[in-house]
Structures are given as C-alpha cells and as structure tokens.
C-alpha cells in the first residue's frame, strides 16, 4: 500500500500555466472553473476490473487531482482480457500494485495512491477513507456492498457512483445527493441563449430499488427497456440469495422466476412486459460472471464522462439508473426513486 494522508484535505491548488497548456482543449470545453474543480478532486475507486479500468483511464487523462484505488484481490488470467493495465506476468500479483505505474504513466500530473490492505475497507477505517474523498465510485460489486457504501457516502455527504457489467449487460447508478449544475436554458430564444442553474435531488440505492413503475403507459414503459433493467436487478437478487452469480443453463429457471417476481413487485405494465424474454434470461444466466471488453469500455467510458460532468457541475448527470444492452448497443436512463 502506498503511504497516504487520508484524513487531511490540502489547500486548493491553482492550475499552472503548464497544466493549462496540457488541459487547453478541456478548458475551452468546460471552462477554467470546471477544470479547477477537477484539479482539486480526490476520487476513490473500489475494485479494479474492466469497468474501473476504462473509467480510471478517462478521469486521469481529464486531470483530476488525486486517484485512490482500493482492491485487495490478485490479478487472474480472466482479468487480462478486460483490463489493459495488466500483463501476463502480473497474474498472481495484487491488482493495484500491478496497475499503479501504468495508471501514473497516463498523466504524471495526477497523484495515484493504491490500497491493497483489506482491513482499510472495513469499519471505522472505511469511514475515514470515504470521508477523505470528494467522490466515491464502486465497480462490479454486489447489491449489499453497493448499498453499504452508498449509505456511508450519504453519512459524509459524498457523491456516489456504481457501475458494472454482467456479460453483455451493463449498468451505472448514481446518487449525487442534492446536485446543482449549470445547463443551457433550452426555453430561451436562440439569439438570447443563456445558461441557468438547475438542481436535481437524488435518492440512495435502497430507495431506488423500491421504485414503483405504476402509472406509466405501455409505450412509456417500453421506452425504458425494463427487460434489461430487471435482468440486472434479478442478478443482484440471485447473487444475494446464492452468494454467487448464475453461470450455466441450470440457473435459467430460478433467474427467470426472480425477474418475474421483481416485475410484479414493481408493478411494471404487463402489456409492455409480461415477463423477461426467455432468450435474454438464458444469455444472462450463462454470461453474467464474464467480462466482455467492449461492454466494459462503453460502460466505463460513460461512467467516467458522468463523473467528470458531476465534478464540473456543467450539464445534467445521469438521473439516476443507466442500463446498457451490448447485444443491441442501446442504453436507457430510468428515474428510479426520484421525486
């Protein structure tokens, strides 16, 4: 583990002329103030798998101030297919130790710290760790773990992101508390274009999971692609009950029953989706534990983009549950548990 002072926040740093030259294109896109916010942000990322790899690449290149990566697991052969931070000779090494130098090489202006000690992600130490960050991102974790970290983030008023993939499916969830941002006033005449301040009040994951789909028409329901949404939620439920993800055809029946139960509980329009398509359930049941590099790239890229958008407070971030279907290349955002 790299040495780090997790309890103290330094005095805000000003962007130097050299940094302004490096980030010139972004400054012209976001503005100097937004880049300054990124420059002073500490981002805490849990688990270094495929989605996190792509997310880290993008936020480090964008010029955040500090990245802290927490992962106590070793590199496996399966990791090599979805993470460009690892090489064959890294198998058996700690993920964060194998990746640290390669992450640093992306942008020497960013401070990179790694934590492989599992005791530092438990109890009071976990609270201190989360409180030291400006934004927390958890990838490829189970539902209970996501809820736990989200609740701690709320305790310390820290924005929270979660993301992950299950074979061809992927998701992003965010809880940005009460988030203020600047966005174009689309109601204003073109000749009088201006920006206005907006606020979105977010909900924690445990609230989002109890969201009811009542009142939506058949068309409105279909536009949200609930089959993919509830496939992800069914995987979470299955994993919670069995302690593992499904990985072959023998699990199709239980996974399908779980998904249908969740559909019923959420009061999803039965005309739009009476059940999860059998072929989708079969695909999910056999591919869920596996990382598919292009899917990780899409989900991780979008996750990074949204984190930067939240930090910059420019334009509206995801509100609040995004799902991606790698078989069609389509993505959908659902408002779950929001006012």
Automatic annotation (TrEMBL):
UniProt cross-references to Pfam families, sorted A to Z: ThiF
Keyword match Ribosomal protein: no
Gene Ontology BP annotations: protein sumoylation
Pathways per UniProt: Protein modification; protein sumoylation
Domain THIF-type NAD/FAD binding fold: 23-330
GO annotation, cellular component aspect: cytoplasm; SUMO activating enzyme complex
Compartments reported by the entry: Nucleus
Keywords of this entry: Nucleus, Ubl conjugation pathway
GO molecular function terms attached to this record: SUMO activating enzyme activity
Family: Belongs to the ubiquitin-activating E1 family.
Name assigned to this protein: Ubiquitin-like 1-activating enzyme E1A
Organism, scientific name: Cerrena zonata
């Amino acid at each position: 583990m790299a040495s780090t002072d997790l309890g103290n926040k330094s005095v805000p740093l000003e962007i130097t002329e050299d940094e302004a030259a490096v980030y010139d294109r972004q400054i012209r896109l976001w503005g100097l103030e937004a880049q300054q916010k990124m420059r002073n942000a500490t981002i805490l990322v849990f688990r270094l798998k495929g989605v996190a790899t792509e997310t880290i690449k993008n936020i480090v290149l964008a010029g955040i101030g500090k990245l802290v990566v927490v992962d106590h697991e070793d590199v496996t052969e399966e990791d090599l297919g979805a993470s460009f931070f690892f090489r064959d000779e890294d198998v058996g090494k700690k993920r964060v130790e194998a990746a640290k130098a390669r992450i640093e090489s992306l942008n020497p202006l960013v401070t990179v710290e790694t934590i492989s000690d599992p005791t530092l992600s438990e109890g009071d130490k976990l609270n201190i760790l989360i409180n030291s960050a400006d934004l927390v991102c958890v990838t490829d974790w189970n539902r209970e773990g996501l809820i736990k970290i989200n609740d701690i983030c709320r305790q310390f008023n820290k924005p929270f992101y979660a993301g992950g993939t299950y074979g061809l499916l992927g998701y992003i969830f965010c809880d940005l508390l009460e988030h203020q941002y600047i966005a174009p006033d689309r109601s204003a005449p073109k000749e009088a274009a201006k920006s206005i301040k907006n606020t979105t009040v977010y909900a924690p994951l445990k609230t989002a999971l109890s969201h009811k789909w009542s009142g939506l028409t058949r068309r409105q329901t279909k536009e949200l692609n609930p089959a993919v949404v509830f496939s992800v939620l069914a995987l979470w439920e299955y994993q919670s009950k069995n302690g593992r993800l499904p990985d072959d055809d023998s699990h199709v029946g239980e996974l399908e029953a779980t998904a249908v139960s969740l559909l019923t509980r959420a009061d999803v329009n039965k005309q739009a989706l009476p059940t999860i398509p059998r072929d989708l359930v079969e695909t999910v049941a056999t591919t869920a534990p596996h990382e598919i590099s292009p899917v990780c790239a899409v989900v991780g890229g979008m996750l990074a983009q949204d984190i930067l958008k939240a930090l910059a407070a420019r334009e509206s971030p995801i509100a609040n549950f995004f799902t991606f279907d790698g078989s069609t290349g389509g993505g959908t955002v659902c408002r779950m548990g929001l006012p």
